[in-house]
Design goal:
Elements: E1 3-4, E2 36-42, E3 47-51, E4 58-60, H1 66-73, H2 89-100, E5 108-114, H3 120-130, E6 136-142, E7 157-162, E8 173-179, H4 188-197, E9 199-211, H5 213-221, E10 226-227, E11 235-236, H6 239-242, H7 245-253, E12 257-263, H8 274-284, H9 287-290, E13 298-305, E14 317-318, E15 338-339, E16 342-343
Parallel strand pairs: 1-10, 5-6, 5-8, 6-7, 8-9, 12-14
Antiparallel strand pairs: 2-3, 3-4, 4-11, 9-13, 12-13, 15-16
The structure holds zinc ion (ZN).
Residues 26, 28-29, 31, 52, 54-55, 57 line the site of zinc ion (ZN).
Length: 351
């Protein structure tokens, strides 16, 4: 059995006619510098993972056609369920809120959940917010395969499903989520700019992507089987990429600040799959000692913020531990939160 990037997808062999012709430009940043081959994704036709020196992102040398992806996600290849990408949405929601929560202090919160399947993560986050003083939460869920049959009515929570981002009318959001989705989008740049442009002043963007190229290269070197899950995954985006994103999109998306950048949360719980969970923690742990020189992390996550109108300096929290998000009882007197010595804005309405 090959090592697989995720238990939710499986790679398949793609034929010549199912691939777009090779483009020398990086589909992530449109950089035109020659990109270096780092990994063979499939042979005959050969598809490689290429590293872009300009943005630090890795992308497939040949991208699948829209029809190929429609067949893939339509279940043609009989792959596993693609609507859920986390074992425990509530645990994941608490994790995201530990970083994003201090910035979500309005009474009314809008969330854009991009590629969120059934909206498990955004609904769990909305639940935490509603339990801590937020009076209403609006979720706009964008997913081609969104399945909302499990949605139960919740007071104060409204959810609107959309098939594409273009259908979403609300201009900007307090929280934009893109968890385990960006690696699937062949021409990523416009989608990334659109998502980041939809972050309100003072709002935050959370993304989680695979960062596994270095691990898979070891498998390639040892001639062990591996599965990048091509054509489901076409990019691999780690620390080097994410820490350049605010600069790369500034002209189109405006000023953004990286608030948190670290190896991603382990998606498998010990209860569900102890061996996979232990392996994931063991791979990520050395980064906290070795820093960016260590790349065998498997996945990356970032929180990016659009500064509020009364722009205040926020210090980058790379690898540091933020205080656990503690839901506040509605009506209780709350203490102002501080990150890196900075007093965070608190909505006058909630005071
Ligand atoms: Zn690039």
């Amino acid at each position: 059995m090959a090592v697989n990037l995720t238990k939710y997808h499986a790679g398949v062999h793609v034929k010549e006619e199912d691939l777009l012709s090779a483009d020398f430009r990086c589909p992530v940043c449109l950089g035109e510098d020659e990109r270096k081959r780092v990994l063979l994704l499939q042979a005959e036709p050969d598809v490689y993972l290429l590293k872009c020196r300009r943005c630090g992102g890795y992308s497939a040398s040949r991208l699948p056609t829209e029809e190929t992806l429609r067949r893939y996600y339509g279940g043609y290849y009989k792959h596993l369920d693609t609507t859920v990408t986390c074992d425990n949405p509530l645990t994941f929601a608490r994790h995201v809120m530990a970083y994003a929560g201090p910035f979500l202090r309005e009474r009314s919160i809008s969330i854009l959940d991009f590629g969120g399947g059934g909206g498990d993560l955004s609904r769990a986050i909305a639940g935490l917010l509603l339990a801590s003083g937020t009076s209403n939460a609006q979720i706009d869920l964008v997913d081609y395969n969104s399945n909302l049959s499990r949605m139960e009515p919740t007071a104060g929570l409204a959810l609107e499903p959309h098939q594409t981002l273009a259908e979403v009318k609300e201009k900007q959001f307090d929280l934009v989520l893109a968890s385990a989705i960006l690696e699937h989008i062949p021409f990523l740049r416009p989608a990334l700019i659109d998502l980041l442009s939809r972050v309100k002043p003072g709002g935050v963007f959370y993304a989680r992507t695979p960062s596994a190229a270095s691990i898979l290269r070891i498998f390639q070197f040892l001639r062990l089987p591996y599965d990048f899950t091509f054509p489901a995954h076409v990019h691999d985006l780690g620390q080097e990429f994410w820490e350049q994103v605010p600069r790369l999109v500034e002209a189109e998306a405006g000023t953004l600040q990286l608030i948190s950048s670290r190896p991603s949360v382990v998606e498998t719980s010990f209860l569900h799959n102890p061996i996979r969970a232990i392996a994931a923690y063991a791979l990520k742990a050395p980064w906290y000692v070795l820093g960016s020189s260590y790349r065998l992390v498997g996945g990356w996550e970032v929180v990016i913020r659009r500064p509020s109108a009364a722009s205040e300096r926020t210090t980058l929290q790379v690898g540091s531990t933020l205080p656990e998000y503690v839901p506040q009882i509605p009506g209780s007197v709350s203490q102002p939160s501080e990150i890196a010595g900075e007093k965070l804005p608190r909505s006058a309405k909630s005071a």
